[in-house]
Design a protein that fits this description.
The protein has 430 residues and is α/β, with parallel strands linked by helices. The chain has helices spanning 3-20, 24-36, 55-66, 81-92, 114-120, 134-143, 158-173, 188-198, 228-234, 240-243, 246-249, 252-261, 353-367, 374-393, 399-403; strands at 46-51, 71-78, 108-110, 124-127, 147-150, 178-180, 205-214, 269-275, 290-296, 302-309, 316-323, 326-330, 335-339, 342-345, 397-398.
Length: 430
């Protein structure tokens, strides 16, 4: 779709909205009704829109279309038109969902403002764009009365987290569902293991450990003619303003499991170390390739959060808990508890946790009992930001300090032009 065609479509849409505004009283009453009844009967079509058409967004769209018999993908948005076309082609080749796709060129929106036009056309919004944009897009969706699935993390800085907390409270008031991409909470085995821990299977928990040791992931090479802004957004994982660094973007999963085990209690302080040992070239932006953080709770319990993305090393992704009467492992590979009553291992039904998070989201929309994951998805994002602050600065960092931080990682402007790469954080100097 050309920019001219997009402009024409958007202009006519704005004209329609301006005309519709003349019937203000009717619109207000309609919106009030929608706020009271923000669910639909099983026979009603749910129109789905995808914002962020990378690999995770494409997967989320397929799972959303599989989650309910009467849904249709009707709009897609991304900073880049080629991302939209690639994602759409992949979805159309999936026989399970191909019949639920109706995204003509006039409902494919590229550019920084793509989210506005996707939201206008749909009932349910899937947010899978780079994390920096999530607070703004989530607010726009909830303000418009739309249900939302939001990938993790929910923000990259403290102002973003506070924005999301406020938005999710508005969603609660409007009876709108907000589902989270923190998929480990939707794993049946993990749910049973954590419930057993909460029921006292290992006694009082005195320490938890979150590991995420893995090899390298994708990197997008800069092509001739790319502006700084285009290259950074295409290569978004390696820029803290876009991803939060991988301690926030990826390690947040097992930090979340540990927070879940700790019943939503969060540490009061943290100290850590990290650096950039292997990914040192400019193509890797300025994020670290390893972090190690020691968090401490008010009662003295500890959370050890360690993550690494380096080739040729031993890998491990799991949460571990040590209690007064035993220990536990909670991960996607196994859920095991060794306690005073012997050893337990989950042997129940295995589920696709990515599919389950969408199944439960759409079920909540249908039955009028909205899910709202806003509290834990916001707090664990802040927990990861707390860890990043500790490793970047080398300081002892407190929860209150991070919660109230005014550090905003937003760029000065959103334009396809020049933009410098921040220096690599130096502990003791940053």
């Amino acid at each position: 779709m050309s920019r001219k065609d997009q402009t024409s479509t958007r202009t006519s849409r704005r004209r329609f909205l301006k005309t519709a505004a003349l019937t203000t009283a009717g619109v207000i009453e309609s919106n009030r009704f929608m706020a009271r009844s923000a669910h639909v009967a099983g026979s009603d079509l749910l129109r789905v829109g995808l914002i962020g058409c990378g690999g995770r967004g494409t997967g989320a769209a397929a799972q959303a279309l599989n989650a309910d018999p009467n849904v249709k993908l009707v709009a897609m948005g991304d900073a880049f038109a080629d991302h939209i076309e690639r994602s759409l082609k992949e979805l159309q080749q999936d026989q399970k969902v191909a019949g639920k796709i109706d995204v003509p060129p006039e409902r494919r929106f590229a550019g920084f403002d793509n989210y506005q036009y996707v939201i206008e056309n749909v009932d349910v919004v899937l947010l899978a764009e780079p994390p920096h944009f999530r607070p703004r897009h989530l607010k726009a969706a909830i303000d418009a009365g739309k249900h939302v699935f939001a990938e993790k993390p929910i923000a990259v800085d403290s102002p973003g987290v506070r924005s999301v907390l406020a938005t999710c409270e508005e969603a609660r008031k409007k009876n709108l569902s907000v589902g989270s991409g923190l998929c480990l909470r939707y794993h049946y085995g993990n749910r049973e293991a954590v419930q057993r821990i909460h029921d006292g299977a290992i006694g009082e928990v005195v320490a938890v450990q979150a590991n995420d040791f893995r090899g390298p992931i994708w990197m997008r090479e800069r092509q001739p003619g790319m502006s700084d802004m285009e290259w950074q957004i295409r290569n978004w994982y390696y820029f803290t303003w876009l991803s939060g660094d991988f301690i926030v973007e990826q390690h947040v999963h097992y930090l979340d499991v540990c927070s879940w085990i700790m019943k939503g209690e969060y540490p009061v302080k943290a100290i850590g170390t990290g650096g950039r040992q292997v990914r040192t070239g400019p193509e890797y932006g300025h994020i670290y390739d390893h972090h190690s953080v020691i968090y401490e709770y008010a009662n003295g319990a500890k959370l050890f959060g360690t993550c690494r993305q380096q080739p040729g090393c031993a890998n491990d992704a799991a949460a571990y808990a040590l209690g007064a009467k035993g220990r536990a492992e909670v991960s996607t590979r196994r859920q095991v508890i060794s306690g005073s009553s012997g050893q337990w291992q989950y042997k129940g039904q295995n589920n696709n946790m990515y599919q389950t998070e969408h199944d439960e989201l759409f079920a909540s929309i249908r039955n009028g009992k909205p899910v709202n994951d806003g509290q834990f998805m916001s707090m664990v994002t802040l927990l990861a930001i707390m860890g990043r602050t500790a490793t970047y600065t080398g300081r002892l960092v407190t929860w209150d300090e991070v919660m109230n931080s005014t550090e905003d990682l937003s760029p000065p402007k959103y334009e396809w032009g020049s933009m410098s790469t921040p220096p690599v954080a130096m502990p003791g100097l940053s």
